[in-house]
Specification:
It contains one helix and seven strands. With 137 residues, the protein is mainly beta. Strands 1, 2, 3, 4, 5, 6 and 7 form a seven-stranded mixed β-sheet that branches. Strand 4 (99-108) and strand 5 form a beta hairpin.
Length: 137
Amino acid sequence: MPTYIALLNYTQKGMEAAKDGPARRDAARCLSMPPADGFVEVTFTAGGLTYERVGFEEVGTAGRRRREGDVLVRRVRVTARALDAALSGDDVDLGFLGMRGKLTVDLEVGTDLPVRLSGDVQHIGELTVRLKRAVLA
């Protein structure tokens, strides 16, 4: 299974690739990720721009502020597919809260903060994680 840190590293690279790629919807970038179980292909697909309601605290060098309301986000779909025959195709553990196979990440335009992440968790179903606090360096 991929570790959380490895997924974050590859997710950051993939998000940057999807964001910096062609401006058209459905532009995609693929990365190969070597987890302990075998190789996995992770694809990041730009889903276009939309608005997402947020409510989180932002902490930075200038102090703290509360962010509330609708923000423009770039929706990125992340899918994982096993390249090793021993693994089960599209049912790949993404290493984040038990999410498997695919997830959606909403990145705020301008800051690239991941304000919402959603995906399927075995035995639970759809799970959505919303940003509550961002510490900016």
